[in-house]
Amino acid sequence: MITLDQLSIKIFADGADLPTMVELAKNPLIRGFTTNPTLMHKAGVRDYRAFAREAITIAGDRPISLEVFADDLEGMERQAREIASWGSNVYVKVPVTNTQGVSTNDTVTRLSHWGIRVNVTAVTTFAQARAVATCLDPRVPAYISIFAGRIADTGHDPVYTIMTTRTVLDRWRPLIEIIWASPREVLNIYQADAAGAHIITVSADILAKLPNIGKDLTQLSLETVQMFHRDAQAAGFTL
Question: Which residue among the candidates 10, 26, 93, 209 is catalytic per the annotation?
Answer without folding.
Answer: 93
